[in-house]
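re: ur question from earlier - yeah i can do the single chain one, its not a big deal. heres the input i used so u can compare w yours
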Amino acid sequence: MRLKDEFRKLYELILGKTIRVGKDGYLLADDGKTVLEPRRKAKDVYELSGGSGYDGVSHYVMTPGNAEEFFQRAADIVTSYDLSPYRNAPHLSEAAALEDPEELDVWDGLELGEDYSFVEIPYAEILVTVSDAGYLEHVVAGMRWDTTMTGHVC
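and the output i got, formated as tokens:
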């Protein structure tokens, strides 16, 4: 899983980095308990965005994201993408007489919480090409595929 840390870095570029701090604002280690030495306050080390909270482990503060750097990094990873038209969705010509096309919901008639196969629900195919298969290695085990997948992960 060579490149799994790239996604954490991208996440930080979008939302900012999460910095663990004690109640007094001093930097903590990743365990959320150990005060880092030398003792320094997060506001003295990082540019903070104002976001803060408690995640069950420790208090934290946030740095600002960086949209421009995210755009550049994402463009280096995703080399192309294509989105198909909706499949199994009613055509506007079929629904226009029954509903206002602006209010058409492709999910009407489906019960929430039920399992449906792809042939029963609206879907769109998404094809994404990445510059290195290593960017996907860490997510493959958790994916549920209802369609044929081509290619391979190194």
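The helical segments are 5-15, 42-45, 67-77, 92-95, 137-140. not sure if urs matches, ping me
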